[in-house]
Amino acid sequence: MDNEFLFDINNNVPSQTTINDRRSLLTIQNIVRNSCRGYVYLEVGSHLGGTLHPYLVDPKCHCAYSIDLRPNSQVLDERGAGYSYEEVSTDRMLSILRQFVPPASMEKLQTFDADLATLSVDQISFSCDMVFIDAEHTNRAVFRDFLNVWQYAKKEGCIVAFHDSNLISDGIANIESMLLHHHISHSSFVLPDTVFVILFGDFIELGASVLANLSLDKESYFSNSKMSLYNKHGSKALINHGNQCIIDNKVDEAINCYKKAVDLDPDSTDTLAQLGNLLFERKRLDEAECYYRMAVGINPAMGSAWNNLAMILEQQEKMAEAINCYNQAISIDSRTTIYANAERCYRKVIDMNKATYDMYNNFALLLEKQGKFIESFKYYNHAIDLDPLRVDIYLNLASSCHRYGRLDLAEACCRRALTVTVNSVEVWSRLGFLVGSQGRMDEAQKYFQKALDLQPEHHETKMYIKALRKV
Q1: More confident residue, 457 or 276
Q2: Strands 195-201 and 157-162, bridge-based pairing
Q3: DSSP secondary structure code for residue 38 in this structure
Q4: How confident is the model at residue 471 (pLDDT cuts 50, 70, 90)?
Q5: Is residue 40 assigned to a domain?
Q6: Is residue 169 part of a domain?
Q7: Strands (DSSP E) along 171-304, which ranges?
Q8: Torsional class of 283: left (φ above 0), alpha (ψ -120 to 50), beta (otherwise)
Q9: How many domains are contained in the chain?
């Protein structure tokens, strides 16, 4: 694919999509971006921002809309499952995204804590080239969401994609029937794992050849999806009985009920996590570990499961893997207990004199997230002592100093990085932003020019220049 946009699909922004989902969505994104000089993205249901991330860092995406009513809890989906979203706020999503997206790129994002039906064309002022629907997973809701986004879709050509299409097959069938009834030309595909995509207008020709090679068989996919839903409803009775057993303090019987439910519905991450919790409490660590791994393998956005898995690994003295799991938990769940668990594990490794460069760097990042800036500086410098030629650590330390309000120290870090190499576009760009933020605009312009000499289309540099012009 020409001018392919490269993005790390293993990024740390929490997402309820699988690796294959992300790969499919990135393919769709590349179809859109290669068809035009710039495009607009609209998303219904954003959770913690994982699916927004690649669009915010794509220079060709000029505007991204995030629309999410964000109720405290979701109504039961087609599986009969409901979820609590009390801690999944827009502010928290933005806080997470700012850790991975440059400030200037964040400016393209517009968020609405609202039902799409209540918005108007005055608020969604640009027609959208790409739409992603990942909100309430009921057949009725997905049909309604499609009707509501259609007024904002670019009629000469757009792409509409749906996540968890295995849950909403009847809603999708109704959408396609409506399109056929109104003689609206389109082409549709099912992509791994659960992405359904509809191409309209110009994109029918532009994207069909690419997606046809990746597409699953639509008929068998939706047939298997419906059979899986039938099994899920059967497992629900077992889960309800298991829940009652817990109330009656019949924990072993509850465990057996949950295991039978998992046999019927092996993708139920809530049941897998609950099994892990009960087995963890019973000190059956090997079994608990197995179910936690299954849960996070299906849904990587389960912060508590990652935390409990990490605690098991820590008890087994598998410290490096435990730290990786704590890092996953922290990226999803901001509870202080999880930060405390992770910090304890890092300190154990450091006390054993087994800390690597990456561990020092990641521990410093952990301390920084908790506002412990002074101590974070100490461990960033430990990482530098282990490998003084790693430019990324100087940039991390510079970012920490900047957040602490010490632009002078952040500037000094960038200058130290320049003693390692003068060929880092990131260092010149960051240095330009830092000196510009201190009012030294002529000097900033010189450093920005050095960055652009190295990489003329460097997006972050252009965004920094744009941000400083607004100051």
Answers
A1: 276
A2: antiparallel
A3: -
A4: low
A5: yes
A6: yes
A7: 186-191, 195-201
A8: left
A9: 1
* Percent of the chain whose predicted confidence (pLDDT) is above 70: 97
Q: What digits encode the pLDDT tens for the residues 124-157?
A: 999 999 999 999 999 999 999 999 999 999 989 9
CB neighbour list of residue 319: distance below 8 Å, 6 or more residues apart: 313, 345, 348, 349, 352, 354
Alpha helices in 115-168 (DSSP H): 139-150
CA pair distance 357, 244, nearest whole angstrom: 49
Query: Dihedral, CA atoms, 213, 219, 224, 226, nearest 10 degrees?
Result: 130
Name 247's Cβ contacts closer than 8 Å, sequence gap at least 6.
none
CA distance 426 to 331: 24
Here the tokens at position 22 are: 């992300």
Collapsed DSSP state (helix, strand, coil) of residue 388: coil
What 182-185 contacts at long range (C-beta under 8 Å, 24+ apart), as own/partner pairs, is: none
Which residues form the domain of 101? 19-216
Structure tokens at 200: 């309209």
- Evaluate if residue 32 carries a pLDDT over 70: yes
Q: In angstroms, rounded to a whole number, what is the distance separating the alpha carbons of residues 133 and 145?
A: 7
CA distances from 33 to 40, 154, 237 (A): 10, 14, 47
Domain CATH for 86: 3.40.50.150
Contact status, residue 362 vs residue 386, Cβ threshold 8 Å: no
In the block, tokens 């060709």 appear at 60
Alpha-carbon span 413 to 427, nearest angstrom: 9
Tally Cβ neighbours within 10 Å of residue 12: 16
The conformational region for residue 49 under phi > 0 = left, psi -120 to 50 = alpha, else beta, is left
- Amino acid in the structure at residue 17: T
Reading the block at residue 370, the tokens are 């908790």
**Which residues are within 8 A (CB) of 173 and not within 5 positions of it... i.e. 6 or more apart?**
222
Helices (H) and strands (E) in the chain, counts: 21, 7
Instruction: Look at residue 198 and give its three-state secondary structure.
Output: strand
CA angle at residue 466 from 462 to 470, to 5 degrees? Answer: 165
Residues with Cβ within 8 Å of residue 413, at least 6 apart in sequence: 394, 395, 397, 398, 401
- pLDDT for the residue 284: 96
Please tell me what DSSP assigns to residue 49.
Answer: S
Cβ–Cβ < 8 Å for 350, 363: yes
Q: Is residue 92 part of a domain?
A: yes
Q: Is residue 321 part of a domain?
A: no
| Cα separation, 321 vs 447, whole angstroms | 40
Cβ count near 183 (within 10 Å): 6
Q: How confident is the model at residue 2 (pLDDT cuts 50, 70, 90)?
A: low
- Tell me if 364 sits within 8 A of 383, measured CB to CB: yes
381: which 2 tokens?
């410098």
> pLDDT of 245-293, one tens digit each?
999 999 999 999 999 999 988 988 999 999 999 999 999 999 999 999 9
